[in-house]
Amino acid sequence: MVDDDKSIVNVVRGYLEQAGYLVLAAYNGEDALHALRSEKPDLLVLDLMLPDRDGWEITRLIRADASLGVMPIIMLTARVEDVDKIIGLEIGADDYITKPFNAREIVARVRALMRRVQFGQFAPSQQVRVGALVLDIDRRVIFLDDRLIELTRTEFTLLQLLMSHAGYTFTRDELLEKIMGYAYEGMGRTLDTHISNLRKKIEPDPSAPTYIQTVYGVGYRMTRAG
Q1: Max Cα separation, the chain?
Q2: Closest to 99 measured CA to CA, from 22, 59, 46
Q3: Cβ proximity of 14 and 7 under 8 Å
Q4: How would DSSP label each residue in 5-32?
Q5: What is the three-class DSSP state of 171?
Q6: Which helix (H) or strand (E) covers residue 220, if one does?
Q7: pLDDT (tens digit, 9 = 90+) per residue, 3-26?
Q8: CA distance 25 to 39
Q9: Sign of CA dihedral 148, 151, 156, 159
């Protein structure tokens, strides 16, 4: 956990340790990067506003690092504007929690995200194809016309779900429950951002998607043929 407020770190650490997690702490960006590279934790809870490097910069550095790039990241911040949340998700954060928060919520989010990671690790080896998209579940990679597409962990999980059930229309709450582990009012914007990011990466024309279709008033579906 990275936060320059030691009292917040102590409270959250206590709840996470009670839930069975070993928690390492850092209070600025430089110490955080050193700890991440030396310890390689399973998950990062990252404050956005830090005294040296901000959470956005740290997230970009993590996603560009081959040894850390798939690490799940929960962004924790007092900034509540939608644009801040969208930027965080676009650069690779998997989840976003605003202050003030309930420490039990952080534990629940950590647990849900870790379940998603573990599910991905033990998924059977197989490929899913839709049109020119080929998703390799075992290697956790996606190709479009034989070109490797870089995805965040959440984007991969979402695309795997849609491709594995091509033609099926998921409600927004169904998708949130399955990819995030929970759904509540206000999370729809987060889902829309992930969908928008995916479309930018896989659609020939993101403004007129042929793969991920919007079913207005319901949710989203993956076309059967692409």
Answers
A1: 53
A2: 46
A3: no
A4: -HHHHHHHHHHHHHTT-----BSSHHHH
A5: strand
A6: strand 219-222
A7: 999 999 999 999 999 999 999 999
A8: 11
A9: negative
